[in-house]
Amino acid sequence: MIEIEANGGDDSIHTMTNINQDLWQLNTFTDYTNGTYEYTITTNDSHGYTTSESGTFEMFIDLITKIKTLKDNYDINEFVNLSNVSMINNTGYTNTSVYLLMKIQFYNTSNSWIDQATIIDDTQPRILNSGEVLALDAIWNNISWSTSLNTSGFGAYRIYSAVTDENNLVLRNKNGSNIISNYNFTLISDTTPPSYTNIKTNPPIA
Predict the structure, then answer these.
(1) Contact yes or no for 122/128 (Cβ under 8 A)
(2) What pairs with residue 57 in β-bridges?
(3) What is the pLDDT of residue 203?
(4) Between the CA of residue 123 and those of 27, 30, 98, 117, 159, what are the distances in Å?
(5) Beta-strand runs (E) in the chain
(6) Residue numbers in the chain where pLDDT is lower than 70
(7) Pairing verdict, β 180-187 and 73-74
(8) Residues 26, 27, 30, CA angle at the centre, nearest 5°?
(9) What secondary structure letter does DSSP report for 140?
């Protein structure tokens, strides 16, 4: 049995699993934020003897995320897809579960980014173990966003991607940075008239 106190908060008691002889582990501990935790491990043997040991451990997440669209400029009736460099990489030592929040945003005349459409808003967590990579292009491109759905007109847009908890609060890395990435693109209007050369008539004009 292990008792864990989270950052000066309430204690929680968990049952540990025997892995091999004297090796025990806690398989699941989900109610955590970045920080240092105090623990007390208590053991009992068949004779009724009880021993305990206390200490501290640190638990942090360390995720690298980036996104990039396939193009920087889009016309009407095109899908805005992500390139294969778009990903979340768990470079830390802690297995974690994440929720994705991915939006299309428009840069308005007040110099603010406003939501145009929410494309992905997870209701179930995605498990991302230490050393694993989550390919965002494979997730986004199955749904994508058509520029024909815009309600703000031509101009500057971006894809906003955030890693959140179940309450849509943006997670932070060990260094305190929010786990967010953005990439800008432009919705353009093709107003250039067509040009023609070497026009011939049949029969030829005298």
Answers:
(1) no
(2) 37
(3) 62
(4) 23, 16, 10, 17, 20
(5) 2-6, 11-14, 17-20, 23-25, 35-44, 50-59, 63-66, 73-74, 87-90, 96-107, 113-121, 126-128, 133-135, 155-164, 180-187
(6) 1-12, 14, 19, 21-37, 39, 57-60, 190-206
(7) parallel
(8) 95
(9) H
